[in-house]
Amino acid sequence: MKKILIFSSILLLIACSSSRKLTMTAERPQYRPSALNHVIDGAIMELLDNPKEALFQYHQAAEIDSTSPGIFITMAEDYYMLQEPEVSIRLAKKALRLDPDNLDARYILALSYEATKQYDQALSIYQQIVKMRPHDIESLYYLTSLQVIAGKPKDAMKNYKKMLRSGFDDPQYL
């Protein structure tokens, strides 16, 4: 849990930058100070174990900067932790519309689908993640575990063999 909070805090600090197309000159990201202040306040509320106040701050930040996928990912994570996966799904999808290659948004979306027992959708997201990171053992593990839960033993065995080839049989991972 502490790792998630630290990761969320770091993610939040960079979350308020607007995504822009790269130009020939390297520009620094433009932060919206008031949105960043709300994000920081939200991160502090998370550290103080006050997720509802944190969400209030993140919603304020999202009103100011609706172009930052990091804000929506953080809100999705908080709603997931508050056992509101349906809201988490909507926010993760919004983050993916803003940044289609964002792995954090995909992970929280897959977890939220899994929490609502929408296994086919969760499997689809995990398959996308594995395509993006084919040798990531953790992603293969999540996909394989969900395939077992969803009653797809042949697919699970195929991915289990991929995990073994990727080094999962190494004692460091056990």
Structure, explained:
The chain is mainly α and 174 residues long. It has two domains: 1-16 and 32-104, Alpha Horseshoe (Serine Threonine Protein Phosphatase 5, Tetratricopeptide repeat), CATH 1.25.40.10; 117-169, Alpha Horseshoe (Serine Threonine Protein Phosphatase 5, Tetratricopeptide repeat). The protein is 72% helix and 0% strand. The model is unreliable at 16-28 (pLDDT under 50).
In short:
The protein has 174 residues and is mostly helical. Helices cover 72% and strands 0% of the residues. It has 2 domains: 1-16 and 32-104, Alpha Horseshoe (Serine Threonine Protein Phosphatase 5, Tetratricopeptide repeat), CATH 1.25.40.10; 117-169, Alpha Horseshoe (Serine Threonine Protein Phosphatase 5, Tetratricopeptide repeat).
User: What is the assigned CATH homologous superfamily of the largest domain?
Assistant: Tetratricopeptide repeat domain
Order of helices and strands: HHHHHHHHH
* Domain module tally: 2
**Secondary-structure arrangement, i.e. CATH architecture of the largest domain:** Alpha Horseshoe
Radius of gyration: 18 Å
Summed over residues and divided by their number, the pLDDT gives a mean of 83
Number of helices in the DSSP assignment: 9
**Backbone structural class:** mainly alpha
Number of E strands: 0
Shape: elongated
C-alpha termini separation: 21 Å
Major sheet: size, sense and barrel closure?
Answer: none
